[in-house]
Amino acid sequence: MRDPIVLAIVMVWLPLCFGRPFAGLLLFSWLAYMRPQDLCWGFVRDLRLSLVVAVVMIAGWYANERGRRAFTQWDFRTRGMVLLGLLVTVSYAFAFKHDEYTNKYYFEFLKILVIALFTAGQVDSPQRFKIMAWTVALSLGFFGVKGGLFGVLAGGRPILRGPGGMLEDNNDFALALVMNVPLLWYLGIGDGRQWVRRATQVGVGLTVITVVLTHSRGAFLALSLTALWIAWRSGHLPRALGGLLVLALLFPVVAPQGVLDRLATIGDTKESSANARLTAWATALQMIEDNPVLGVGLRNFQSSYRRYSVVPLGEEATTYVAHNSYLQIWAEGGTLAFVAYLLLIGSVFAMCRRVFRIGVVRPDLAWAGNYARMMEATSVGFAVGAFFLNRGHFDLWYHWLALATALLGVTRASFRSAPAASAAAAPAAAAVEVRWRPLLATVGPSVGAPRWARRS
Length: 456
Hints:
By secondary structure, the chain is an all-alpha fold.
């Protein structure tokens, strides 16, 4: 019954996607991160539902919103994504290998960029930002809660794969859940309702269990650094560190032995997986040295591995991916693409600092400061996890870049729309809350951020 239910939901929602493209963006995000099609067993698994939704919502924007709402908000991040896309395209055009595999991922990357740019244009109000953030958080949270519950009931059985798509590999799945921990945490804090806060805290706990059970060491390190970052930014550092210390002491007692054995290999360069990762990094540096400008081309790393390997390989020997997103971008796209990628990551932290400062001087915009802390912690999780995982073209990260642009735009627009004097007089607690509106009203037409608010 799952197949007809999922198909019926999408088909019923499609007309709304055309009339109100933001509704299509929510549906697209649900399909991308909760992956309901991969929870089915029949024909729906092979349908390109996301592509259909994307075409319909963009056509709906062209028919109904063009001239009234820009396709995207242009700022440093959106321009940087376009630049990165152009650099990857040039690199790929001169790549040694073009086949069905590389073509598939090249067009997938272009789709990711288009959806990210479209997101920056559609999320032009605090209400839309909140709904989009909750959509992503609940979609990924479904698997965090489900995996945590099943893991506890099954006595710590490992999770060997994710739901599907770009979340199919257990390492990629774990990284997405690490990025989702700050979403659940800060959205629960910012909601203002006690039961929502408690529910998100439970979701965070179960998601942490799921991440641990994936046995992904890179994700575990990213989770640890993310937790420390949230503690540092909490304003209650001694208490937060005390809580983390208690959890650290309990972890060896309650964690399955398989998890402990896996984590014990962190730093062991003689362990086979770690050794393969170090060899892949050295091979990536060799590719960079020989192809500093254009790289070897998108998804050409593994096919070029044998040629550049620092360890002699036979014809039947196993080749590897980069196991490092930064080296992946650099080796495949060239130095300019690598620099653009680093600047995009750094720009999120700069944006978060700017938005948080606005929230400090304007108590009625404290909600924006809370969102800035959320995006900052999520970016820490990605930046650390990306050092160990091959996720240079992770769709969730580019979606996150678009939401960074959106947050800066809506914060600036809110700053200009309310006079400072009246904002200062308003009770801070009432102003922090961004209340939900009925979905159909919220996804309808709204005034976009002014041009100056779209500057980085």
